[in-house]
Design goal:
Blueprint: H1 31-40, H2 46-59, H3 66-71, H4 74-78, H5 87-114, H6 118-130, H7 149-167, H8 169-177, H9 180-188, H10 195-208, H11 221-231, H12 238-253, H13 260-278, H14 282-298, H15 309-316, H16 347-370, H17 377-384, E1 397-398, E2 403-404, E3 410-412, E4 417-419, H18 425-430, H19 436-443, H20 450-472, H21 480-496, H22 505-524, H23 533-543, H24 549-566, H25 573-589, H26 593-606, H27 611-619, H28 622-644, H29 647-669
Antiparallel strand pairs: 1-2, 3-4
Helix pairs in contact: 1-2, 2-5, 5-7, 6-7, 6-9, 7-8, 7-10, 9-10, 10-12, 11-12, 12-13, 12-16, 13-16, 13-17, 14-15, 14-16, 14-19, 16-20, 20-22, 21-22, 22-24, 23-24, 24-25, 24-26, 25-26, 25-27, 26-29, 28-29
């Protein structure tokens, strides 16, 4: 109801695809291997304990077996093994707990913290950090002297720490209290020789620094220097681009520790990193990496090389002359990066996975930057006058899209620091459908098939990013009326380019949010809209049946915005009748009070004024319908309001109830009641 609000992305733990958790009560064949394996964890032989940990780790990737292990206190059985005398046991125990935290979700992570997993985990992290630089390991503790057990154990432990801190505030409190930051940053110093470990650390850092003011004092000059060193590393592999992107997100989270005079250059450095990842065409990268893999597999094993990596990247960087019409066509919770778990001979797949995670992360952080709530004009003055922000000003004018590329400009509106700039070309290009050739490659390579979901996630994040920028940007900074009309045509093409309207819930939420924000902006400036009433109604008919309430709210709002514009025109009564009937039906039949309230709000906007609106209101008997519905809506609010909706939602619904009474009174004064 009213203007749409920018959403913030909160990162969420990885939950691998697989069988759904069983709901058929206790018992089952899983309990027998669970009991047997948990018993073997106490065996005097380190090899038996390692085997048991590895077996449990594999089983825990199947959600339906997790309850059987939880019932037998798997956390307290595995926890002590994090400090086992055998390094191999430590690693496999940490891996098993990592899988439990990743596959079990929030409730399991809460249970793990309640059962004190943080005590042995913190001890392990600190011990590994202390021994990280040691050149020798006791032969009694490790059987494979060519394996770096310390770093491998640390990688599993950091991923476990990331998962539990993502889900549980107590874990974050313990992280702060126990001074874990120092140990974690020590692992980061290995980024030049172990980028997988560094990426795990960066993911963990981005999680623990989000909304954690108590940690800020720990980021002294030395800690910031570690992060700055990683941000400036010159390596151009996709893993390093992902690493720099994650570190940029961490630095944005701790921006309050940056001196005001350095804030502008810091944000410009962040945007430069995002520009680096968003400049790469993921579809072209998939095609190139597929060819590289074919070529590598034809070569003798000893001749395998990654030296052609930079050529592949160069081929995938988007040309500055590419325009919007050339966007490939074809067909949210963040997932944890698990590229370190991919087979070692899948480096091409790892690179593409890292790129897509970098792009998704960059877009999510830009969304959060639009929702930020701190800087003042003075703090951003240096930034807005800088010429370093190449994400937003690579060309002063992009002839292909008609969008003026202006520098990033952040203002100090009451609630947030806004990105007050033009639609960035690179973000806009990411809103297009993934490359159809790349999709075909992924469809026919089983190990590459998960990339399809990641490609779609990047598109949805780009649309959400677009939505946020539209909410906080001035029309002139967006390129003016013609640029917004071009954008409307682009978004319409995304919706209507297929024979059937899209059904994917995440895409529908993202595209309808962007459309809603765009139409709001255009209506507020009296800019003519490009979508026909027939298209709008078709979109709304599809969206109103979505299981996602946000999609339903968006399509109802879109119809209200468009209807209010049509009400000011000539000969629009028939279209307004269709819109009015649609909104009335939603208000009366919609199971969600929030969506029903939005439909009423839209009706108020559409039929607020204008001869055509008055004519249509009489013909659809709007006034008697609303008078009949008014007591029903009040009763629903009394019965359903408490417990089902947030305080903010109830406040908005109260306003709708009051506006309904006023709107009925207004309609009665018009003398439009039917005879």
């Amino acid at each position: 109801m009213g203007k749409s609000r920018a959403r913030r992305f909160r990162r969420a733990p990885f939950s691998p695809a697989g069988p759904e958790q069983r709901r058929d009560g206790e018992g089952g064949p899983e309990e027998e291997p669970a009991a047997e394996l948990l018993e073997k964890l106490q065996h005097p032989s380190a090899e038996v304990r390692e085997y048991a940990c590895a077996s449990i780790s594999k089983l825990l990737q199947q959600k339906h077996v997790i309850p059987a292990f939880l019932q037998r206190d798997v956390v307290r059985c595995l926890g002590p093994l994090l400090m086992d005398h055998s390094l191999a046991v430590r690693e496999t125990a940490a891996g098993a707990l990592r899988n439990l935290s990743a596959c079990g979700g929030f409730e399991v992570c809460d249970d793990m913290v309640t059962k004190d997993i943080m005590t042995p985990l913190v001890a392990l992290l600190k011990e590994c950090s202390t021994g990280l630089d040691a050149n020798q390991l006791s032969p009694k503790k490790c059987r494979d002297m060519n394996k770096n057990y310390i770093e491998d154990i640390a990688n599993e432990a950091i991923n476990l720490l990331w998962n539990v801190c993502e889900c549980n505030n107590t874990a974050v409190y313990i992280f702060n209290k126990e001074g874990c930051l120092e140990a974690v940053l020590h692992y980061m110093k290995k980024f030049s020789t172990n980028v997988d470990l560094a990426i795990s650390v960066a993911n963990c850092l981005q999680a623990v620094t989000e909304d954690n003011p108590d940690l800020l004092s720990s980021f002294n000059a030395s800690a910031q220097q570690v992060l700055e060193t990683v941000m400036l590393c010159p390596e151009s592999t996709m893993k390093h681009i992902l690493l720099r992107t994650l570190i940029a997100g961490t630095i944005w989270n701790i921006k309050d520790t940056i001196p005001p005079g350095s804030l502008g250059s810091m944000v410009n450095a962040i945007l430069k990193i995002f520009s680096e990842s968003l400049a790469i065409d993921a579809g072209e990268m998939i095609i190139s990496m597929n060819e590289a893999e074919k070529k590598r597999l034809k070569l003798p094993a000893e001749a395998e090389t990654e030296e052609n990596m930079s050529d592949v990247i160069d081929n995938c960087v988007l040309s500055e002359d590419d325009d919007m019409e050339e966007i490939p066509k074809g067909k949210v919770r963040r997932e944890n990066d698990i590229s370190d778990l991919l087979p070692s001979d899948k480096w091409e797949l790892k690179e593409v996975t890292a790129l897509l995670m970098a792009q998704q992360t960059a877009l999510e952080i830009i969304v959060n930057m639009c929702c930020s709530e701190d800087p003042s004009d003075d703090e951003w003055e240096e930034l807005s006058s800088s010429d370093e922000s190449d994400l937003f000003m690579e060309n002063s004018y992009n002839e292909g899209s008609g969008l003026l590329m202006s520098p990033l400009c952040l203002s100090d509106e009451v609630n947030s620091a806004f990105l007050n700039n033009l639609i960035p070309k690179k973000i806009l290009e990411k809103t297009g459908f993934p490359n159809s050739v790349a999709l075909d490659i992924c469809m026919h390579k089983p190990s590459w098939k998960p990339l399809i979901k990641k490609l779609n996630a990047v598109q949805c994040r780009a649309l959400t990013c677009l939505h946020s920028i539209l909410l906080v940007s001035d029309v002139d900074c967006l390129g003016g009326a013609s640029a917004l009309q071009s954008l409307a045509q682009h978004l319409s093409q995304l919706v209507f380019s297929k024979t059937e309207l899209p059904a994917d819930t995440e895409f529908l939420e993202a595209i309808t949010s962007a459309l809603r924000a765009l139409l709001q902006t255009m209506a507020s400036k009296n800019i003519s809209q490009c979508m026909s009433p027939e298209q709008l109604l078709a979109l709304c008919e599809a969206g109103i049946h979505s299981s996602n309430a946000s999609v339903r709210v968006n399509v109802v709002s879109i119809l209200g915005i468009s209807g209010s514009v049509l009400a000011k025109g000539q000969d629009t009564a028939e279209t307004l009748k269709m819109i009015g009937k649609f909104l009335l039906e939603v208000a009366m039949k919609e199971p969600s009070l929030v969506v029903a309230g939005e439909a009423l709000d839209a009706l108020f906007d559409v039929f607020a004024d204008g001869k055509e609106a008055e004519k249509a209101a009489v013909q659809i008997k709007l006034l008697p319908a609303l008078k009949e519905f008014q007591p029903v809506f009040k009763m629903r609010m009394r019965k359903e309001g408490k417990g089902q909706y947030s305080t903010d939602q109830l406040c908005v619904l109260d306003n709708v109830k009051m506006n309904l009474r006023r709107f009925i009174a207004y309609q009665e004064t018009l003398g439009k009641t039917p005879t």
